[in-house]
Each structure stands twice: as C-alpha cells, then as structure tokens.
Specification:
Distance between the termini: 61 Å
Oligomer: single chain
Helix content: 55-70%
Number of strands: 0
Number of helices: 18
Strand content: under 5%
Radius of gyration: 22 Å
Order of helices and strands: HHHHHHHHHHHHHHHHHH
Length: 383
C-alpha cells in the first residue's frame, strides 16, 4: 500500500522537549492540592491541561521516533522497538507504584495520618493486600495521581498497527480515531478499575489526542498550514480561548458563574475529563494551532538559556514524570504537617521543581558518560 504520510524532518524538535518539560512541571504542581503556585498552570485558564499536552506529545514523539524505522526496517522491527518502549514504561510504572504505596503507608503509620490512606485510594492494601497488588500489576488498581502512566502504556502498546495504517492512510486513521472517541462517549465505553469504578483517563476517548499527535507529526499539520495561517482561524481561536477562560473561571468562582445563563454554564461545568469532552479537545486543538503558527521549529527563542532547565526536563521526561508524581505526594504531605502557609506552598513547589531539574540534568549527564569518547587522531608518520 502506498505511503501517504509525510515523515518529519530529521533532527530534534526542541518544541517537543520544551512543552513536555512544561507538562511535567505542571503535573507536579497540579498534584499538590491547596497550593497557590499551581495557579500558574494552564488548567486554571482553559478546558485542557498538562495531561492533554502530555498525551499529545507522546503520540507525536512515538511517530517521530518509530515511523521512519518502521518504513526502513519493516513493521516487525518497528513494532518490537515500540514494544521495548512499552516494557520500559511498564517497569517504570511498577517501580513507581511500589515506592508510592510504600511511602504512603509508611508516612501514614509514622505520623498517624491515617486519612491519607483513603485520600490516595490505597485503603485496599489494608483489607486485601495481595489482590490489590495483583490488580495494580494489571493496571486496574491505581492510587491517586498514578493514572497517566497506565494510559500511556496502553496507548503505546496498541500503537504499532495504528502507526502502520497512519503511514498509509493518515487522514482516514485520524477520522477513525475521532469516531471511536465520539462513539465511546455516547456508549459509555471504558475499562474497569479495581476495586470499583472505571479508568479516570478513558483510553477509548483519550486515544484521540495520542492519534492527533501522530497525525500532526506525519504531515497533518503541514497539510493544514493554509488553515492554520488564516486570519479567520486566528480570530476564531482567540474567541474560543476567551470563552474557555470565562467558563473555567465561572466554574471556579460560583458568584462569577451566576452571571451566565445556566444552559451556558452547565455546558462546560463540570469539565468532563474522563470522557474527554469535545470542548476540551477543541481547546487543545486551538492551542496546537497557535503554537504551530507562532512558535516554528526554528524559533531562535528555543536556544535561550532560560529555557534550558525545562527543555532538559522534557528530554528526560519519563524519569522526571515518575519523580514528580512521588514529589507531589511528599509536597502534599509536607503541607499537611506544616502550617500550609503561602510561604510553605511556595517553598515546597520551588524545591520540587528544583529537584526535578537536578534529576533531569544528572540523567542527561550520566547518559553522556555512557557514550564512548571520540577516538584521538592517529599521530602523523615522520618523514
């Protein structure tokens, strides 16, 4: 079958690292409740948030890395490399899962803070530890804040055949993804969770962001440049961002929300994250359009030193994400034990970001040490 996708240009796209780093920092801050610092994150000013960005970039990066490999070396090689990445993600999830629940259990016992057992959804470990751990290995049991990585594992695990089709029929693949998302919303499809309920990030719906990232990477964004650079598109995007800001603020401040008609307010509040509401997906599409329009791949600002910490955090995304999830729990617990003052919130948040940055720089440095040193040039022969 003919290849109809356009492969991305070779070379690192620093925009991906920059925004993935932003997403990791935002996820860390957003996971600390009652924290004034997380007001700087995008979830407070629109329908989408760092989770949408994380999933989109994951799909974009997976296509960026594995599409050329699949074409040059065949489907089997590409699929096995993707499977290797899925295994790495799964191992990271298991390690984080064990450390996370062990830390919660230890601190709850050490400080007599039994309420965090229920707050972080690990009460099942007290009643039925063996079964709860087994369900955790099957990704069905997820403590609070450990929802994104299992979603990523499932989407990557199912991605090889999707990528194969995307390379040949990108637009039809994107259309099929949208249909699956909308049908899943209508039919209420989701995966079961343990001990009850369903996945917080419904994979049947959130796959559309992952596939959208793949579609953009494989020529979708390039084919849409006429629309992206249209003045009408710009005005519509700005108008929608204003609407999203107003409706998000209306949901956060009841007195402000009372100023709007109930039908308008109730359309956007509460924000349907589990089934990825259409207004949420559209909000993210608008952000992607504006980034493509105003932040090209060769934007000189990407080389500014001020962006180095967040770019490095984006380059070491998996480790930074895992450490960030753990640190968000530590930060939350620290604020619970302390006064929870404004100063404490700022110190905890700043310290967490600093630790994430140090971890990213260390891993980046460590990887460079694993590479062999360049060979010294042979001495010139005399005479």
């Amino acid at each position: 079958m003919k290849i109809n996708a356009t492969l991305p240009e070779k070379g690192r796209d620093l925009r991906l690292d920059l925004f993935r780093g932003v997403a990791n920092w935002a996820i860390f801050l957003d996971h600390i409740p009652d924290n004034v610092v997380n007001w700087i994150t995008t979830r407070n000013y629109g329908f989408s948030d760092a989770a949408d960005l994380f999933v989109f970039i994951s799909g974009y990066t997976a296509s960026f890395v594995y599409a050329r490999m699949m074409l040059e070396r065949g489907f089997i090689v590409g699929a096995t490399r993707l499977t290797k990445r899925v295994w790495q993600l799964y191992v990271a999830h298991v390690v984080l899962f064990v450390i996370y629940i062990a830390a919660i259990g230890y601190l709850a016992l050490r400080f007599g803070a039994s309420e965090i057992i229920n707050e972080f959804n690990v009460a099942g470990l007290v009643d039925n530890a063996a079964e709860t751990l087994r369900q955790g290995l099957f990704l069905k049991f997820k403590p609070v804040n450990l929802d994104v990585l299992p979603l990523y594992i499932v989407l990557m695990g199912l991605f090889p055949p999707v990528l194969w089709i995307m390379l040949r029929q990108p637009d039809w693949t994107m259309a099929a993804s949208i249909v699956l998302w909308l049908v899943s919303r209508q039919a209420g499809w989701n995966l079961p969770a343990y001990p009850a309920g369903s996945w917080y990030f419904n994979p049947f719906c959130w796959q559309v962001l992952f596939v959208f990232g793949s579609w953009c990477a494989l020529g979708g964004a390039r084919r849409s440049m006429a629309v992206i650079h249209s003045s009408i598109t710009l005005y519509l995007c700005i108008a929608y961002l204003v609407l999203a800001l107003l409706m998000t603020m209306a949901g956060k401040f009841p007195d402000f929300g009372a100023l709007f008609p109930h039908w308008l307010y109730s359309t956007f509040n509460p924000n349907d994250k589990t089934y990825l509401a259409p207004y949420r997906f559209l909000h993210f599409v608008v952000i992607v359009i504006l980034v493509i329009r105003f932040v090209p791949k060769d934007w000189p600002g990407l080389e500014w030193k001020v962006f180095d910490p967040v770019i490095v955090c984006g380059q070491q995304s998996l480790a930074v994400f895992c450490v960030g999830v753990f640190l968000s729990f530590v930060g939350h617990f620290t604020l619970m034990l302390s006064s929870g003052s404004l100063l404490a919130q700022v110190v905890v948040s700043t310290a967490g970001i600093a630790i994430l940055t140090i971890v990213a720089y260390y891993i980046s440095w460590s990887k460079r040490q694993d590479k062999p040193l360049p060979k010294a040039p042979a001495p010139a022969k005399a005479g």
